[in-house]
Known about the structure:
Organism: Arthrobacter ginsengisoli
Number of strands: 9
Protein name: Heavy metal transporter
Largest sheet: 6 strands, antiparallel
Structural class: alpha+beta
Radius of gyration: 24 Å
Shape: globular
Strand order of the largest sheet: 4-5-9-6-7-8
Number of helices: 10
Amino acid sequence: MARRRKWRHRIVLLLTLAMVAGGIYTAVAFVQRSEVLITERCTAVGAGSAELATDQAANAGLISAVAVRRGLPARAASIALATAMQESKLRNIGHGDQAGPDSRGLFQQRPTQGWGTTEQVMDPYHASNAFYDALVKVAGYETLDITVAAQRVQRSAYPDAYAQHEAMARAFAASLTGQTAADLDCTLRDPDTAGDTAATQERLSEDFGVLPASTEGNTLVLDAEGTQAWAVAHWAVANAKALSITEVQTDGQSWTRQARNGWQSAEAPAGQVRVTVAEAPKA
């Protein structure tokens, strides 16, 4: 009888362990599939590794695209990103602080100090250009420490504060100016609205200038190569949430929103960037 009880105890234990293991597997599978539990974020590993929220990454994409459009080096974008992160957390905020109550926008520029009207400094494109206009007047900014160059533009009461954002700025600037390939990834939930190739092309043209483009169904095909192609491709990934972008392809690599596994090898032609937007969700 004692031996039978031992066997029964062992069988019960084994069944219990099997049920626990099955429960853990089911829970892990649920977490992996659950849209609600996905933490949306963007990661750049171009020069180190850093993360931003999706809205911050989109603003970083605009700031970097303006540098590319102007023919400025990636260093300029790094300085601009570190500055905007310190001044506004890379968000286009409509208020200032005690030191500068009229400060506004990505760079907290003050209309009373000649940066433009309140409406202008709240326009991210104008604000980025205004920052670069001032930066290029700083002699030798390309070789200065990021925090030193930023301070000579901003003249902040906290001149050393920009240094804490240098790692993030370098990583995202390297990716978003196309200096590095296939290394900006955004983890996103499935889109809940359809994308629009015309709206995507308009936004891209506002940031980079007009690029030759055509449309194939719900895919925008842009002519670009080399660093410009990767700048555009990474910009598209950084803006994937807002523009309902589901796939980006260029130069033998593909980023797919639903796969959530970063850039992968694909039959993607060089000299083109293919940006696919979501179709209307099924009822």
